[in-house]
Known about the structure:
Aminopeptidase; 7-stranded mixed beta sheet
Amino acid sequence: xxxxxxxxxxxxxxxxxxxxxxxxxxxxxxxxxxxxxxxxxxxxxxxxxxxxxxxxxxxxxxxxxxxxxxxxxxxxxxxxxxxxxxxxxxxxxxxxxxxxxxxxxxxxxxxxxxxxxxxxxxxxxxxxxxxxxxxxxxxxxxxxxxxxxxxxxxxxxxxxxxxxxxxxxxxxxxxxxxxxxxxxxxxxxxxxxxxxxxxxxxxxxxxxxxxxxxxxxxxxxxxxxxxxxxxxxxxxxxxxxxxxxxxxxxxxxxxxxxxxxxxxxxxxxxxxxxxxxxxxxxxxxxxxxxxxxxxxxxxxxxxxxxxxxxxxxxxxxxxxxxxxxxxxxxxxx
Length: 333
């Protein structure tokens, strides 16, 4: 197994355009500023960015978000990573592969021998992905009629969408949204660093919706390869009848389309089958349920990854970690 530099990892992923943004060296730099240590490893035609985090008593956890990178047989990569993780005194290795269902359980177990499925996901396994290769009119027509109406309503009600670098204002709105919709948020420093790192590579945009100079909402979207992701969104409690978040999302889709992306990932809906989502969303508003009603209106296809899988090296300490993690509600990404 080779340990690569960030530059060498970039060269490797350049040959794999399907690489998820959470497997880029830029994401590794972001996480390095907030308690994680990225390691870039390659074994043959496969590789992964592994994030290590220190625990008490010299122990660690290891995490591969939306990886590994590279197709084919991952067996040799897992064997080398097992040895490496044990040398690093890891309690367990957690992997959230960038593999979409349907795939039979025996299929994923063949690719990940010795792993067990975990229900403590870090990133949301289920999402909505919009095809943005079509024309603007076709993208609009694939949306729910009410969503199209709200996009136009926001425009008629003089909502203005501006590109911005004002992360502080965005974070203030995130705190309001977190309190209203009951989900965790990162610190101002985290969003600031994410914006600085990715905007320097022209790989993200911060959009702010305003009415008469007053901020009403904002979002940060990211892009890598053929895909853009809507990771962070916020809104205030003022002027909500002007539907600023709908126009914000449309402008973000246009930003992604204009930079050549083919897919726009709305990133995170409740982890239930579509039939359950459609039967239930009118009755629930907490957490991701609060945004599902909004996101479903933009069309697209509901997709689910194969979820979260753990390779356990210290079973007793792993159980202790699970009990601790069950009491936390950290933000994703």
